Amino acid sequence: MAVPFRHLCSRSRTAGAALRASLPVKFAGRSISSASAGSPCSSRGFAASLHSSWTQSRGEAGQSASCSSEAPALEVVRSHAEGLLVLGARSSFATGSKSTARGHVFEHAGREWVCVFEVDRYWWAAPLKMEEACWLQVEDRSNHGESCAAECLARPTPTQAERAQLSKGLNTGVIAVDTLAPVGVGQSMLICGPQGTGKSTLAKQVLEQALTLRQVDKAFRFLSDPCAPPADPAQQRAGALVEMAISPSTKQGSASFLAPLFATVGAAEAVRDAGQNALLVLDTAEPVLKAWDLAVQMAEACGNPMNSDSLAAQRRAFFAALFERAAVLPSGGSLTMLVLLDTEAMAALAAAAAGASVADSNHAFQVSDFEGRRPPEMERLRRLEARGVALTAQALMAVGIAPPKSSSEAPDNTAVGGKASREMQSLSDGQIILDKTAAAEGRFPAIVPGASFSRFGLGGSGSKEGAPARQARDVRPPTLQAVSAHLRMLLALEQEAHFRPKTDSVDGIQSAQLQAVMAALLQPPGAPLLAEEMTVLLLAAVSGALDPMPSSRVAAVLSGGSRSPLLCHLQEAIPSVLKKIAEEPQLSKVTIRELEVAVRLFVKLKEAEASPDATTAAE
Questions:
Q1: What is the pLDDT of residue 471?
Q2: How many CB atoms lie within 10 A of CB 505?
Q3: Quick one: angle between helices 565-573 and 531-542, nearest 10?
Q4: Taking the domain 480-489+500-618, which CATH number applies?
Q5: Which of 84, 90, 154, 87 lies closest to 125 in space, CA to CA?
Q6: Which of 425, 435, 552, 596 is the most exposed place for a label (fewest CB within 10 A)?
Q7: pTM
Q8: CATH fourth-level superfamily of 158-355+412-454
């Protein structure tokens, strides 16, 4: 919740004047007459339902007691090219005035600004209009004007009572995403990783697949990176994709992009509130993180003591104003959000994981080193220790547990990779973590299985005997659910040498099959898969039918997405089986058997092609 300006009550006008860094500013440079006080300001085009967001005036030295008919005069305490730190008005029962609120618009130095979030006792205001920001492929700008950002900020996020339960999945076309961290319609998902790991490419593929299969009515993309991969021009021309782009020539810092970013969010909300399905892709979270970091620095420069707990609450309220707009409404409308976070992949787990300063990478922690963690996490650690697993930093990262931070480590004061980005991860409905090393090796998508997850996309669909039936939580198709159960944890453990079996032949076979699954999860951009095709590839990888082939050949026939050699063969040989998998509510034994026979015949064909006799006959 937002923290009120409790310090302003007792502040005298003399003390307030001492804090002025510039002249007082007035709302949009205009006054509201007594007849229109408390009504929406028509010059900003706000709906009547938003009139509570506007503020009345608070007393200033030399002003009459009837100042409630005037717009509030705000004090600019600190000024920066990317934003202002202002003292806002506080609500007064005696005068009928109301507090400054998010979305409040005012004018300063010939420019319009909008209040975005509270920091300590102040408000951070961002420039409302940027010449460097413009809508692409937009003819009707009635819902895409400058007021769209202010309206979005002033509009509250849907409450829990106003939300419907997530029940439908979004087919992303990316087998690794749909298997390890599925995206539900109405869900918010972070895509985290350092530069060069393919975040924008992955988000673009998800966006295009959603539009191609008509899973959403309209898609929106906020672009601040001029090098971001362009979307399909045909979808742009059809009006299904709308983009807000920041000019690459801009000299403004990213903190000044808040208004264009929230204007994009507001346009997507309009589609959601109209009962349609919208997909929103924000190619960076940097404007949000940088604005908060800059606001805190400016507030600290004022010299007043700051309460860390209050700041944490204000930071969470600010980030929640973005992420909680993703929702499914009872009316049928939905907003699905993908946010790209540029950070080290393992920093998505914790600050210590990003730059763990452990002198020995093989250093094993003790369970007692994790005192104070959540009980479920402590229980997992005890089980790992009971199994003889060394609690090293790498092993902990594989299962999604942050190593304990050494007391000698320097505090993490950076916005990216620090507390602010971790706050985002706690508010989002899931995260996809991309690994820089895997991306450098040419693997796409370079997803880290143990660190990537979906809070609402996975879960049991059954209930205990005698308990009331509950709605399924898993948003994946039933056939894909069955074949990908537990794969995320098994793959995470398989990637760590500490967990790989060395002697047991049975476990060795399972390890080979998991390596085959990893190969099936690799697909180049532009080779999207349907849910039944993902199911076929995963079933072939774990069935054992490919075991006679060398591991390098197995990887070659499974990888490639829709261009996978095995998938192309099965589409020609047994198209009826793929149709059954797409239509069946559960995988039948007959369907599984037919698929296994077809895969074994494929293996025999490949063996025949590679045999010396076949080579001689061909010559």
A1: 55
A2: 8
A3: 110
A4: 1.20.150.20
A5: 84
A6: 552
A7: 0.77
A8: P-loop containing nucleotide triphosphate hydrolases (3.40.50.300)
